[in-house]
Amino acid sequence: MCEILGLTLSHPHEVNSILSDFYTHSDKHPDGWGLSVFTDDYSNMEKESLPAYRSRYLRERLREPISSKTTLAHIRLATIGTIERRNCHPFEGRDADGRQWTLIHNGTIFDFPKLLKYSGVQRGSTDSERILLYMLDELNRERMSFSEPLSAEARFDVLDRIVYEMSEGNKLNFILYDGELMYVHTNAENSLYFRLLEDGVLICTRPLKEGDWDAFPFTQLVAFRNGHCVSHGTNHGHIYHENEEALKQLYLTYSEL
Q1: Phi/psi at 140 (nearest 5 deg)?
Q2: Quick check: helix, strand or coil at residue 35?
């Protein structure tokens, strides 16, 4: 599986030490790395299908100060999808109103037929990219009922419904950012942790070196704005348990495509 990191703050801060610590985990997640850095004025996404510890570009990047209010980072251990840049996270897309959405995912979708139609239109071959495409379609479908862009509350409700449905039987650990809210979900125990900071929260698959970490609340969608928790979704109770046989069957299915 992969590892994900999300950082949401009330004000921009330098994030180099946090990212450097996170990317040391890439020895066990060698199939690519990604980084999205956001401030109030811009967003920037970078990724490569190299192990982070071998990336000369990333090494040079982290030597320069990176100041950010919101940060997403990912290191990949491929399950579905070949090892190439187009299958590396984060994934980006825009909704009908031009709002940019950015997703990082750690998990596997074993059974959710509504994603199948995106196999022919996605750029890569991961289930993670299909998740984002499906979310955007559902958000756009909801948008058709309104005369103006969806509010933060309406966007959260759409995603809460998606999570409730998609999480059953699937491992759905993700962090999603829409330029205003950071949405976080896990339904696998001991697979996502958080650390409270002075002006925000840091979320990571495995605790980093510094600070006190707690298990992230699971089986419900949680949203943050500028470092503060603002919404809790439905507690769906769909706990994911590792299933080696299901994983083997999934690999066989995709190897024949």
Answers
A1: -65, -35
A2: strand
Instruction: Say if residues 73 and 34 touch (Cβ distance below 8 Å).
Output: yes
| Neighbour tally for 165: CB within 10 Å | 14
In this prediction, the residues of the chain whose per-residue pLDDT falls under 70 are: 243-257
pLDDT digits (tens, 9 = 90+) for 82-121: 899 999 999 999 999 999 999 999 999 999 999 999 999 9
pLDDT digits (tens, 9 = 90+) for 164-192: 999 999 999 999 999 999 999 999 999 99
Q: What is the pTM of this model?
A: 0.94
Cα 3 to Cα 28, 32, 45, 138, 217, distances in angstroms: 10, 11, 17, 26, 17
Rounded CA separation 33/50 (Å) = 7
Closest among 73, 65, 61 to 7, alpha carbons compared: 73
Q: Report the SS3 class of residue 141.
A: helix
Listed residue (162, 169, 98, 178) closest to 130, CA to CA: 162
Q: What is the sign, positive or negative, of the torsion defined by CA atoms of 28, 29, 33, 34?
A: negative
Residue 86 is predicted with a pLDDT of: 96
Of 105, 101, 149, which is closest to residue 127 (Cα–Cα)?
Answer: 105
Q: Which two tokens stand for residue 164?
A: 């409730």
- Are 84 and 49 contacting, i.e. CB atoms less than 8 angstroms apart? yes
User: What token pair was written down for 68?
Assistant: 């950010």
